Amino acid sequence: MKHWIEAARLRTLPLSVSGIIVGSIYALSNPTETINTPTEVFSWKIFGFALLTTLGLQVLSNFANDYGDGVKGTDNADRVGPQRAIQSGVITPQAMKKAIIITSLLTLLSAIILIYFAFGKDNFGYSIFFLALGVAAIVSAIKYTVGNSAYGYRGLGDVFVFLFFGLVSTLGVNFLYAKEIDPLLILPAISIGLLSVGVLNLNNMRDQESDKKAGKNTIVVQIGASNAKIYHYSLIITAMLLVVIFAILSDYNFDQYLFLLAYIPLTKHLITVYKNQDPKLLDPELKKLALSTFLLSILLTVCMISLISDIIVNLFLGGR
Predict the structure, then answer these.
(1) 97, CA 20 to 30 Å: which among 62, 66, 147, 196?
(2) How much is the pLDDT for 87?
(3) Rounded Cα–Cα distance for residues 34 and 45 (Å)
(4) Number of domains in the chain
């Protein structure tokens, strides 16, 4: 059990749910034209199964990554981070393959239940679309490193992370509640996607030499270490700016800029990356950036909850 928990890489889980949290609380704080109160738009069932489905996708991705890199020999003595399960021999490729199949089925089941709670027997078109999206997410999580056509070996991993853990996670879960897309929410969705890509980019910066030897052509391998740093700065800084723009356009009060506290560890992280001369020493920064992203999502939702309080007060006064 200990080895399976390690293979699931629990430190990556908070990052994966950041979009779910922001998208859900945004739905709660922004009733639509057809839904007048926060309690009408929010559902604990949708929230719970959205979290469960996203966590399933993240664990599936971690298992598949362990399996794909393990059987290809990419995880070898040159790798800097913690030893993977197949690499160290504590889990066999056959056992990991079975775990991937089981995790895929459980994640798909969770997604189906989530879709049912969101749309019921109505909105059949939406149900089919989200089911197809769920299947695509599962296939993409597996194909990142598994198979001869693994897209992670062609530098496309950043695209998958941005789409599914940024846009789809944040905008998708919000649509499950509101049945519409709020254009303003695109800004934090992009931010979370960029920060998630930043974590992957750090991983690829750390593993640049071993990936290059193994033929894993990540973006870092393709553009080189110096350009990878510039790419990393652009990801983090753009994400930070977009959240500020989101707050301004949302007409936040002064006390609703609490999320800026998360910019302290993010800024420290940028300084560390700037000063770094040995990519192998960037390994601790993966956890720091992931937790900073999670902190940003939590603080941003706290600011949204302040909006919820205003809505409830206005509804109460309006009723009187």
Answers:
(1) 196
(2) 79
(3) 20
(4) 1
